[in-house]
Amino acid sequence: MALEAAGVTSRDLARKPLGSSYQGDVFAGSYLHRVNGLPDHLNSAIWMMKLRPDTQHSQIFDIIQCGSVWSLHLKLPTADHSTMAAQLAFVSPQAAAIFMHHYRTYGIQIAGNWISCIYDKHGSPGHTTSETRVLRIEGPATVMNPQFWDAKFRSACSFQLDRWGYLQCDTPGKLRMEFRFSRVDGQAQTCRQMIERVLVHYGISVWYGPDPCGQIGNNK
């Protein structure tokens, strides 16, 4: 199963990282939304450097508690760069400002590496939306398993997960799952549209959940 191949085997949202490194999609809205030369105070995008080559999406998401994330793209090492880089875009420039203030004041360590951060020169002005990178899905117990949703998500888009897990569900005969994607547009957004278009008549409901990166003091 593709999720297992990517390390997606845990049902514990708080512990197990999921997903694999991502090089970015030049046709995604996150890419097309970029603005070169955007002033820092209007910029929601951060360029992260000196990440360990094996850094996972979840290890980056786990250190963010300043605001909801719009997208996270990992750039693999190259012949010229032995470490990994990443573009992190928040929903709002205010969240990016808090992140950069923390970096400049205390530094940021991920997976044992002290990383470097700058505002991305290919900036993002942020997004005014209630959409998040988190989907919550409720449906019949027979289809609420990672194998089923891996196949359905892959029929809709190419995606990377932060993690997934089961949530409490009080509806008899149904289960509830949460999937945290690495991006809103092209991933969480696309998968929600697919569910609403194809699966809603099978007793499956879907909605956006809160992004834990925007919940101060959470334990992920």
Quick take:
The chain is an alpha+beta fold and 220 residues long.
Blueprint (SSEs and pairs):
Layout: H1 2-5, H2 29-32, E1 35-36, E2 45-51, H3 57-61, E3 69-75, E4 84-90, H4 93-106, E5 109-110, E6 113-114, E7 116-119, E8 122-123, E9 134-140, H5 146-156, E10 161-167, E11 174-181, H6 184-199, E12 205-208
Antiparallel strand pairs: 1-8, 2-4, 2-7, 3-4, 5-6, 9-11, 9-12, 10-11
CATH class of the largest domain: Alpha Beta
Mean pLDDT over all positions: 87
The fraction of residues assigned to DSSP E strands is 25-35%
Major β-sheet annotation: 4 strands, antiparallel
Order of helices and strands: HHEEHEEHEEEEEHEEHE
CATH architecture of the largest domain: 2-Layer Sandwich
Low-confidence blocks of residues? 1-27
What is the tally of beta strands?
12
User: How large, in whole angstroms, is the Cα Rg?
Assistant: 17 Å
Helix content: 10-25%
**Within the CATH hierarchy, at the fold level, what is the topology of the largest domain?**
Alpha-Beta Plaits
> Could you state the CATH homologous superfamily of the largest domain?
RRM (RNA recognition motif) domain
Distance between the amino and carboxyl termini? 25 Å
Strand order of the largest sheet: 3-4-2-7
Q: Assign the structural class, choosing from mainly alpha, mainly beta, alpha/beta, alpha+beta, or little secondary structure.
A: alpha+beta
Give the overall silhouette.
elongated
